[in-house]
Amino acid sequence: MKKNPLKIAVIGGGSSYTPELIEGILVRQDHLPVRELVLVDVPMGAEKVSIIESLARRMAAKAGADIHIHATMDRPSAIRGADFVITQFRVGGLDARAKDESIPLKYDIIGQETTGPGGYAKALRTIPVILDICREIEELAPDAWLINFTNPSGIVTEAILNHTRVKALGLCNVPIGAKKDIAKALKVDFSRVQASFMGLNHMGYIYSATVDGVEVLPQLIEMFDDPPAGVREHLESMTDIIWPMPFLRSLGMLTSPYHRYYYRNRMMLEEEKAHMAEKGSRAMQVKAIEKELFEKYKSPHLCEKPKELEQRGGAYYSEAAISLIDAIYGDKGEIHTVNLQNRGTISNLPYNAVIEANAIIGAGGATPLVIGEMPTRVAGLVNEVKAYEQLAVKAAVEQDYDIALSAMLANPFINDYEVGKTILDELVEAHSPYLDYLKR
Amino acid sequence: MKKNPLKIAVIGGGSSYTPELIEGILVRQDHLPVRELVLVDVPMGAEKVSIIESLARRMAAKAGADIHIHATMDRPSAIRGADFVITQFRVGGLDARAKDESIPLKYDIIGQETTGPGGYAKALRTIPVILDICREIEELAPDAWLINFTNPSGIVTEAILNHTRVKALGLCNVPIGAKKDIAKALKVDFSRVQASFMGLNHMGYIYSATVDGVEVLPQLIEMFDDPPAGVREHLESMTDIIWPMPFLRSLGMLTSPYHRYYYRNRMMLEEEKAHMAEKGSRAMQVKAIEKELFEKYKSPHLCEKPKELEQRGGAYYSEAAISLIDAIYGDKGEIHTVNLQNRGTISNLPYNAVIEANAIIGAGGATPLVIGEMPTRVAGLVNEVKAYEQLAVKAAVEQDYDIALSAMLANPFINDYEVGKTILDELVEAHSPYLDYLKR
Amino acid sequence: MKKNPLKIAVIGGGSSYTPELIEGILVRQDHLPVRELVLVDVPMGAEKVSIIESLARRMAAKAGADIHIHATMDRPSAIRGADFVITQFRVGGLDARAKDESIPLKYDIIGQETTGPGGYAKALRTIPVILDICREIEELAPDAWLINFTNPSGIVTEAILNHTRVKALGLCNVPIGAKKDIAKALKVDFSRVQASFMGLNHMGYIYSATVDGVEVLPQLIEMFDDPPAGVREHLESMTDIIWPMPFLRSLGMLTSPYHRYYYRNRMMLEEEKAHMAEKGSRAMQVKAIEKELFEKYKSPHLCEKPKELEQRGGAYYSEAAISLIDAIYGDKGEIHTVNLQNRGTISNLPYNAVIEANAIIGAGGATPLVIGEMPTRVAGLVNEVKAYEQLAVKAAVEQDYDIALSAMLANPFINDYEVGKTILDELVEAHSPYLDYLKR
Amino acid sequence: MKKNPLKIAVIGGGSSYTPELIEGILVRQDHLPVRELVLVDVPMGAEKVSIIESLARRMAAKAGADIHIHATMDRPSAIRGADFVITQFRVGGLDARAKDESIPLKYDIIGQETTGPGGYAKALRTIPVILDICREIEELAPDAWLINFTNPSGIVTEAILNHTRVKALGLCNVPIGAKKDIAKALKVDFSRVQASFMGLNHMGYIYSATVDGVEVLPQLIEMFDDPPAGVREHLESMTDIIWPMPFLRSLGMLTSPYHRYYYRNRMMLEEEKAHMAEKGSRAMQVKAIEKELFEKYKSPHLCEKPKELEQRGGAYYSEAAISLIDAIYGDKGEIHTVNLQNRGTISNLPYNAVIEANAIIGAGGATPLVIGEMPTRVAGLVNEVKAYEQLAVKAAVEQDYDIALSAMLANPFINDYEVGKTILDELVEAHSPYLDYLKR
């Protein structure tokens, strides 16, 4: 069947990650015919998006690609008629992130961009905006696919899929990164590796890993037992920690990097506090990195993605996103790990919950592969986190302080009402006007 | 990874279908290295299996294949060390089938090989045998995959998967046949067609059909509205009936050929009665066809599958089975429609129920693609049939007449206790000694 | 706590059953203080309701009760401020029932007032009216309890509870009748007997029966084995049939009278056809009985419920209804068998399905007692009937012919599309204007 | 029906609580005819049980009750033929409890007898013993009811109901105490109050409270807003804390006393540490109280329950237990709050999970009242705690260290692997020989 060339809108187009997306599009020119790429941003990001626009044009020119690339502040015009909308915006920017990281820490609670109270505040800022975007998509591009990167990706996708009619998939670079790390640790080609994820975004357990279809998870787990250099770095990259063997043997699975916050909370808290004292928040470090990056981006001689971008922390984002678009457009039937509605995939999670799982991707979208019942040893934690996530969405959708408080108390990082309420109130205050809807 | 060449055991190797299997193996010689093929049968089938053995050897010789092919009555020796065990036997042979077809009909109830009381009697004869086979596999070839064709395939697979530790997949030629028919009706290449099945064996609803990933089910449904020749025959082949449009619009899906027995029961009963009066049972017709086939098979000049086999009614069995083995052996990641445990695939069927659904096939076996909740308009019937099937298995496993009676009464064809009990008792008597375990 | 005296509105107040209700109220005068009783009917029933009004007043006078009793055609005024609304109306009257009984029979399908196509047509006529009534209750008496008798009581209650905010309980005289029959068969006092029902209205299986808390179901079942006179009649009254022992031993439970239509469908069909040929429809017989009854009711000397009413077939309706009202008003904590939302009571039925089950009744309404998983031997049939019921409600609520057809095909009495569609179309035509909403 | 007089065996008969049980039996003499009461204990408790035996005999004599009361170390003889077995033993005694309370606290984790790592260690010590007892009941008193008090009551009952065939109910004094407190706070008679509990033992949320059937929960919640003396003490007794209003408004329910450990964990930890520093463990305080109590019990002049027992902390245990026995024996149909299998009572907890819920009690045992779906705001925590409990049972039943570790990590008090493993290992060591089965 003949297919039309594509229009892609990138919301948050001024992000420092965008050159990766551009690269991802350009290397697929032969079979993924993008005719128009619109970079949308808000006035606060006008300068950045303009820098990106110029860089993107240079990259396209160098690659000989005939793509109409332009930046705009006019979101509806960008969305109108789009085939794919990619959302990677950050409400409040890195300054807001700095607050998400530092406020909880004042009360001896992990301050983290996507989990705990920090991630919660980010969700509360993001959901109203994403729902606005979805209303526009429903009206102006009802057949478009929304590919969401914006963190906390699982919660944001939960809001989209349970409160709008938009076709959407949530995306994260963790699963693709884990597969890359597995391949490297086992020293086999990436194409021979498959891994199965069970759970939620930033809470995905790897319950199977295969090379050419043969199960290798037990070997992978045993590799954590005093790994040699050349292997250690890849294991560490996968889980951000070399787990002790009794832990892994008891769990029988591998973790995401974010599981450290749940299974080594006390240690991570000490680490975070030390870091904060020493170097300030991660947001501020990223801000410095970004500043440098954009200086580079400005150079009229740069016409490809600079190497430094990889240090930024978002490796494989582009690969995940553009290969997903490619799989939909090309009806590839590939397996990708995405955020979508449960619908029985994991039988002991709510039917409508958004989960992160392997799915077959084709022109019709994503169909998850059945996982069955989660083992009891993780079912409690995953259900708790999902309950928190569903309450977070409900609080934002119903703009209700009582629900917002119950979401905070449902978060596993918070085990004390007084602490939870204090942090919530301080975040609401600090994030004015974004969270004014929770004031009363 | 290097893989060893394969040993395949075919139980019921004297079946007239076996040449299709041989053909399927021979055309895949380059990538599916079969080194040994054992055709197992019972003394009653000694002559037939010997004919098949000779034919198979001639076929292999012609194809230049180095496969050790031999027939045996010694099932354990055939199973020992097998990589795949294919079961396609028929307990009691076609004479038993004739009883399954004729006894219910005496009481104005559909007499059919795989559904209703006839299929039930076949299940009751088959389950004890398949469980014996599975005990042997557990002991002698614990890593083997069992590919079951033996009808009623869904019930037999339910018995295997819920009562043994054998890795098994149930198979049927209906789904692959439907996809072939869809391709022909739409005049597109088979490779571009995908179809999604929901339900049970011989009760699979087609709820999605795509060409290159684009949904075409609504068009397919509308084609039933007075289809022209050249299309009509393919639609008819798919569902064995040209459904009236109000039916299909209300259903919103396509059916299997066996749905006629549920949705046009009265008509089918009249048809069957007329057929029986005119030509005797289908079993007796098949017996005649088989006689002729085996005459052909005997010919020392025949060294390929004869064309006449296709008329026999089992088109694509070989393709379904051998391509499934191929997908497992080659870790293909292809989608096949198989019988396996539900585990949440269809959320409104029991977790452990065996269903027929699309699944990704790889070296680790089959992982079903999530279907979600069946629509209410089919959930009642499918649940009723599944309840009957689970009771049928339970009756055979526990060898309990009361349960056997409740299974009969749970079958949708039976709506009268007196009729159900009469037929059950007559079948038990007629199928002595196979069903003696239900006498009391 | 002091409670106000009650206003009760009876919709369908001109029913021949109403004197039973009056009696039920009058015998509870001391603790159930009814101050106002409004009998609502439609113009077609004006004469009847006026006769009932006079009789009711005479009954109240004789009992020395100070109740304001009046008839009206003005439904909203009757509902306004009511504490209880009792619905016992019949859309289309007995003439419509006659069609429900005779039309299916023309096609060799059971013609029955509450089950099969006949009950379905009644549901389709009733649901639009009950939803109108509920809108009025929501507005004019939002705290009122609706006690629904109108058949098919389970389907009508399903419509109310899933499509309105009215507090409602569905009621049937079968469960109370069964308990009476059990007490009589065992020759113990009714007060010592408890019975547990599992399933749906007119499809309730008795899975436990106790005397003073001691299980007696096995004895009760064995009593069906050639029961002596003095017992036989009570067993027969309970199930409307003396079930053969193999049936009951296989089922392990007792049935309602309506199970005959499912488990002895062929026999019942023959019976019905013979009856119809001999005496015409049951509706016409009831019409004659009613005529006589109303002649009696007219007599100014009659000031109590006449004995003949019991023959009418609705024994214990009044007892069921008024004792239920009494249990709510008096916060009694008694167990009644009612129709209400499942909410997990039976784990293998949909969460929102209306079921018939034992429940604790108090001022807050009804809380069902957990039943758990239905046994497989009944789960299929009950799920099938519930699917039909949910489709029937959906067809009426969405006024959609396609859904109406799928409901008809989902009914276990119908196993042939042609038959089902023919009957549906004929019923829609015959019941004009009530079912005009399904014409297209 | 005539019933036989009862034999009751009390395992842990030397408990200081036993006089309450005796009293409970004696005040029900007229309708609960106990003929034999056997007090079972282990050699370590020989002196205590002998003191209790004498006191119990004096109490019975004073009450004019003809009960054969005797103490024994021979458990099987006590169980043989018992109608009720009450378990209230403490494996390892108060010295073990002192370790449960102090070891976690060393690592800044709540040390508590029934929740957290302390309760977990108690469960691990108790489960092997209770399963031994159940094997004896299965053999020697298969019709007996086991009434379990032994803490953690929910976990112990989970072990019994999922791993033995014993008929058992778990009991706790929290629900009855809460109802008493509600009555006092509202200044109404206890008999007019009903309360509905949702969740688990020591994790029961009060989601409804009624006086004469009228809902009063909202008023109760508002009473926490600066309650006057005379009310305050009863609210405090109910929840062990005066919850701030924003917490209660967000929760919309009332808590058990143990919820403080989950919702005010940090505060409770500080409190516990201060207490421990000041007064030593609660176990040691109880030990002192018990010493005094037993001194009192020894007095030959004491022939009733001494007032001081109430201070001990187990108020209403006797009332809960003996009134439950009374309700079973007398087929009362009363509502009690007990620990039993979920079976769908709470739809978002596992089917076989033991929960604490309201149930109708009669001769046949307990039937829970349907609760439906827990609200999201508590579903996460309750599922997490239940997962921990199920893992705890599994660890004890399978005697598997890996599972024991995963149970510890699943407990909400533990959010750091290192801390969890350290505490587990130290508990296993400290509780030798009871937990030697987890050594490796």
UniProtKB/TrEMBL annotation, chains A, B, C, D:
Site entry (Increases basicity of active site Tyr), positions: 113
Species classification: Bacteria, Bacillati, Bacillota, Clostridia, Eubacteriales
Binding site for substrate: 97, 151
Cofactor: binding details: Binds 1 NAD(+) per subunit.
Subunit structure: Homotetramer.
Protein's UniProt name: 6-phospho-beta-glucosidase
GO molecular function per UniProt: hydrolase activity, hydrolyzing O-glycosyl compounds; metal ion binding; oxidoreductase activity, acting on the CH-OH group of donors, NAD or NADP as acceptor
Pfam families: Glyco_hydro_4, Glyco_hydro_4C
Domain Glycosyl hydrolase family 4 C-terminal intervals: 197-413
